[in-house]
Design brief:
With 159 residues, the chain is an alpha/beta fold. 26% of the residues lie in helices and 14% in strands.
Length: 159
């Protein structure tokens, strides 16, 4: 057997096939759910994963308001943001971000809590920003992406 004939196949922009998947976040732990979502967005579950290309799928998360965190992290965990001005350090909790998404002032599909958590798990730079645009999160069970024929996957079966 000629071992030099084996080729490592690398994905190219013309060979990438993106799919649409729906994930139900009911009674899921936020961090564990988002780590699997980040892997799907990157394309790590695909056999032709290429680290320098956006070869992941488009992910729709429904029932985001029913996600849970262990203990009382919704009110005790703190995220920091600095505006760049003196005295501009802002502190907010996951509960604050969840309340912000329930108000309706946020653009549809852009849930601030999930965006914050998944963004930290993606590569930094323009590739991570491009992959984050493939994430859509909705508080209810309805979403506006039925025309894309998304398939429902069970997130608990993924590793």
């Amino acid at each position: 057997m000629d071992t030099l004939s084996y080729k490592t196949k690398s994905a190219t922009p013309s060979t990438i096939e993106k799919q649409w998947v729906v994930i139900d976040a009911t009674d899921q732990v936020l961090g564990r759910l988002c780590s699997k979502v980040a892997k799907i967005l990157r394309g790590k579950y695909k056999p032709d994963f290429t680290p320098n290309l956006d070869c992941g799928d488009n992910v729709i998360i429904i029932n985001a308001d029913k996600v849970k965190m262990s203990k009382d992290k919704f009110n005790t965990r703190e995220y920091l943001h600095f505006t760049g001005y003196p005295g501009g350090q802002r502190v907010y909790t996951p509960g604050d971000l969840m309340a912000k998404s329930l108000k309706g002032t946020v653009k549809a599909g852009r849930h601030p809590l999930f965006i914050k958590v998944v963004k930290g798990m993606l590569p930094k730079g323009s590739l991570g920003a491009q992959q984050l645009r493939n994430l859509y999160v909705y508080n209810g069970a309805e979403h506006g992406h039925e025309a894309n024929n998304p398939k429902v996957i069970d997130i608990n079966k993924l590793k």
